[in-house]
Write a structure and sequence with these properties.
Largest sheet: 6 strands, mixed
Strand content: 15-25%
Radius of gyration: 22 Å
Structural class: alpha+beta
Helix content: 25-40%
Order of helices and strands: EEHEHEEEHEEHEEHHEEHHHHEEEEHH
Shape: globular
Distance between the termini: 23 Å
Length: 444
């Protein structure tokens, strides 16, 4: 398969720049992510039959149209055109604080081509082809580097019969909900909307009475070069689950658990977790962990739905390998259900209070110890992103924060279906493909 040919790279600023620079303080949810990578997600589209045109100003190429619509979208999302900024305190504690400087330094816009590569070349192989990783800009950049690198980078890659729009956003600035809020808004403006249907709420939320900016000991950053996480050789495969098969898993989990509270996603993730453990060579007495992100917006009444920033907290299920193998789907799914149920408003607020008093930065090494980690959500609006020439046919993620055991959950193309992009060793993925119990729920 051919490689990538880079055509141009430009800086895109907001269309209607304002003189006054806004400063946005950062919360513990944001700051804990300084040492890890960006969010990288992208959409694959068929090539438009006719390029979008600006009615009043004549012919525009597709690339120019996307660049211009991005500029207008940044009017509503000034943090994405800014940079992180820091302030050192040379006191006895030697601390540092970070904030978003909405200075309109600009987002990165890259135009590239994958000559001869087709949509089929991307979607037909069993494993996600490595070229997909080159559809994303700023790969390998850590979030703290946002002090001198763009917080938003877009790459539009032309395929033989398609277009891939890859987006990299600094994870200190957004979580998955905010990432797709921006993406949805850009598509809306690209289609010709003047006003957004959902305006972002940019001001960060803090506990009443808490001090900010939050100060972090500089010693936390002295270990940056010591924690150079190098993942083993990994492969990715997208497993597709239909609405009907998910319903069967949910019914089975609730019947075994003698409850009706287990959700479709909890049943599905438990089904996948059990397969992974069955197909890895692990000590039966060894502990294994399943980490999932729980959203704060529905749980904290102070947070509006359009809150733009990070508002998630990790919950973790820990079980011994033997328990996972011997206990049924229902019990594992019930354990997940209980962990999610404990993520209450009080627990969210206690985390924020404790983190402010004693900051702890997440590292890739700390996330990956014998654990499966789920990111993204089937609730995000993926396939509604029409930029003016039709809906996408697939979604893929970049290399950011990938490790052995990373699971990215996406809404499927068909209503009610779910795709899980699973990142494991080739050996584990091959074993899962031969696992009849697991594959019985997968649609090829």
């Amino acid at each position: 398969m051919a490689g990538i040919r880079y055509i141009s790279s430009t800086k895109v600023q907001s269309a209607n720049r304002k003189g006054k620079t806004q400063r946005i303080e950062l919360t513990p949810w944001d700051l804990q992510l300084l040492l890890v990578g960006s969010i990288q997600k992208g959409l694959l589209f068929p090539k438009p039959k006719a390029e979008p045109r600006e009615k009043q100003t004549g012919n525009y190429t597709l690339i120019r149209h996307l660049e211009t619509s991005l500029s207008h979208t940044l009017d509503h999302f000034p943090p994405l055109a800014g940079r992180l900024a820091s302030s050192d305190e040379h006191d006895e504690n030697s601390t540092i604080s970070f904030y978003i400087d909405c200075n309109d330094a600009g987002a990165l816009f890259v135009h590239a081509a994958a000559d001869g590569v087709t949509i089929s070349d991307i979607l037909k192989p069993i494993y996600v082809p490595p070229i997909v990783q080159s559809f994303f800009p700023l790969s390998g950049v850590k979030n703290y580097e946002g002090t001198f690198k763009p917080l938003l980078a877009v790459q539009v890659t032309e395929l033989a019969d398609g277009i891939f729009i890859g987006c990299t956003i600094n994870h200190v600035v957004v979580d998955g909900t905010s990432f797709w809020h921006f993406f949805n808004s850009w598509a809306e403006i690209s289609r010709g909307s003047i006003q957004l249907s959902k305006l972002p709420v940019l001001q960060r939320w803090f506990l009443e009475g808490s001090d900010h900016p939050i100060r972090i000991p500089q010693s936390h950053f002295k270990r940056i070069h010591e924690d150079q996480f190098v993942p083993p050789p990994l492969q990715e495969r997208v497993f597709h689950f239909t609405k009907e098969n998910i319903a069967k898993l949910k019914a089975k989990a609730n019947a075994e658990g003698r409850t009706n509270k287990i959700s479709s996603l909890q049943a599905l993730l438990s089904h996948l977790w059990r397969s992974v453990i069955r197909n890895k060579t692990l000590d039966p007495k060894e502990e294994t962990h399943y980490r999932m992100l729980v959203g704060a917006r529905p749980r904290l009444h102070e947070l509006p739905e359009q809150y733009f920033g990070n508002a998630v907290q990790a919950g973790s299920v820990t079980m011994k390998v033997k328990e996972l193998q011997e206990q049924g789907l229902g019990n594992v799914a019930w354990q997940m259900n209980r962990v999610v149920a404990t993520q209450t408003e009080e627990k969210f607020k206690k985390f924020l209070e404790a983190w402010t008093a004693s900051p702890k930065l997440i590292t890739m090494g700390s996330m990956t110890t014998n654990a499966l980690v789920t990111s993204s959500s089937p609730w995000f609006n993926i396939y509604g992103n029409d930029f003016g020439w039709g809906r996408p046919v697939a979604v893929r993620s970049g290399s950011g924060n990938k490790h052995d055991g990373k699971l990215t959950v996406f809404r499927g193309v068909e209503e009610g279906s779910i795709d899980i992009e699973a990142c494991f060793s080739r050996k584990t993925l091959e074993a899962m493909a031969n696992d009849e119990v697991f594959m019985d729920a997968v649609t090829i």
